[in-house]
Write a structure and sequence with these properties.
ABC transporter involved in vitamin B12 uptake, BtuC; two-stranded antiparallel sheet; globular; single chain; mainly alpha
C-alpha cells in the first residue's frame, strides 16, 4: 500500500470513527447519569437523517437551514422519549427502564416504516462538501471526509467544556455519583436528565446527517448497525466516560477501515471485528479504557 492510499484510508477511518464517537457519547451520557442503556439512541440517529431529507428534498429548504431544523426536531424527539418512556420509571427497577428502552426502539423503527415507508430515500449532497480536492502528491479527498472529524471534535470539546465549566455540567456529574443527594441539594434532577437526553439527541442528529451524506440514502433501519457499533465503542472506551466514548469510536473506525484496507479478502467480516473487539474488552478490561468500576444496585 503506497502512502497516498494510506492517507485516504486514514481520513476515511478518522471520519467513520468520529461518527461512531458522536453516537457513543449519547449512550455514555445517559448511562453515566441513569445507569441506563438507551437502546432507542440509534433510532434517534435515524430520525435526524430523515428530518434533513424532508427539509431539503420534500420541502426544498436550503441545506444548512434544513440541518438546523433537523437537529432541533431530533432533539425534541429525544426529550419526548425521556418524558414518555423513561421519566415515569425513574423509581422503578432498572430492568423496567431497560425493557422500556427496547420497546421505544422497536416503536420508532416500525413507526418510521409506516410513516416513511421502507423505501430508501436519497439525500441532498451539497456540492461544496463533495467536490474532490486534489493534492500535489496525488492524494484525492472530499471536503466531507475532513469536515466530519472536525465537527465531531468541536462538538465533543464543547460538551466537555459544558460538563466541567458550567453549573448544569456540575449537576450532571453530581447526579452520576448520587442522584438522591443531588436532589436534596435543590437540583432539578429531571431537568438535568432531560438536558442530557437533549444534548445526546442533538449529537446523534449531527451524526445521522453526516452519515446520510457519506452513504447518501435514508431508511427506517439505518440506525440499527451504527447504533450497535456506537454502543460497542462506548463500552470499549469506558461507558460513562465522554472522552472514552470518543476514543472508542475512533479506534473502532480505524479497526474497521484498516482491517479491510490491509486484508481486502476479509471485507465481508468487517462487522465481525466490532463484536470481536467487544468480546476482548469485556474479557480483559470490563470497565473499558477510561471507565471506572461503579456500584450497580438493582
Amino acid at each position: 500500500m503506497n502512502l497516498n492510499i494510506f492517507i485516504q484510508h486514514f481520513i476515511n477511518a478518522l471520519s467513520l470513527g468520529s461518527l461512531y464517537g458522536l453516537v457513543a457519547v449519547g449512550y455514555t451520557m445517559v448511562y453515566g447519569i441513569l445507569r441506563l442503556i438507551n437502546f432507542a439512541h440509534g433510532d434517534i440517529f435515524m430520525l435526524g437523517a430523515y428530518f434533513v431529507y424532508f427539509a431539503t428534498i420534500v420541502y426544498k429548504l436550503n441545506w444548512f437551514v434544513g440541518v438546523i431544523i433537523a437537529i432541533i426536531l431530533t432533539t425534541i424527539c429525544g426529550l419526548l422519549v425521556d418524558r414518555i418512556a423513561y421519566k415515569p420509571l425513574r423509581e422503578a427497577p432498572r430492568i423496567s427502564a431497560l425493557i422500556s428502552a427496547i420497546g421505544v426502539s422497536f416503536f420508532i423503527e416500525n413507526f418510521a416504516v409506516v410513516v416513511f415507508t421502507g423505501m430508501p430515500r436519497p439525500v441532498v449532497q451539497p456540492p461544496i462538501l463533495m467536490k474532490p480536492i486534489e493534492f500535489e502528491n496525488g492524494v484525492r479527498l472530499i471536503p466531507l471526509g475532513i469536515l466530519v472529524p472536525v465537527v465531531a471534535f468541536v462538538l465533543v470539546g464543547a460538551l466537555l467544556w459544558l460538563l466541567y465549566r458550567t453549573k448544569p455540567g456540575l449537576a450532571m456529574r453530581a447526579i452520576s455519583f448520587d442522584i438522591e443527594t443531588t436532589r436534596m441539594m435543590g437540583v432539578s434532577v429531571n431537568k438535568i436528565i432531560a438536558l442530557a437526553f437533549g444534548l445526546g439527541s442533538a449529537l446523534a442528529a449531527v451524526a445521522g446527517i453526516m452519515w446520510a451524506l457519506r452513504y447518501p440514502r435514508v431508511e427506517p433501519f439505518m440506525g440499527m448497525t451504527p447504533g450497535i457499533k456506537a454502543f460497542i465503542a462506548a463500552v470499549f472506551g469506558g461507558i460513562g466516560s465522554v472522552p472514552g466514548a470518543m476514543i472508542g469510536g475512533l479506534i473502532l473506525g480505524f479497526v474497521e477501515i484498516m482491517s479491510v484496507a490491509f486484508f481486502p479478502t476479509l471485507s465481508g467480516y468487517k462487522d465481525a471485528f466490532a463484536f470481536l473487539l467487544l468480546i476482548l474488552i469485556l474479557l480483559f478490561r470490563p470497565t473499558g479504557l477510561l471507565g471506572e468500576k461503579l456500584e450497580d444496585k438493582i
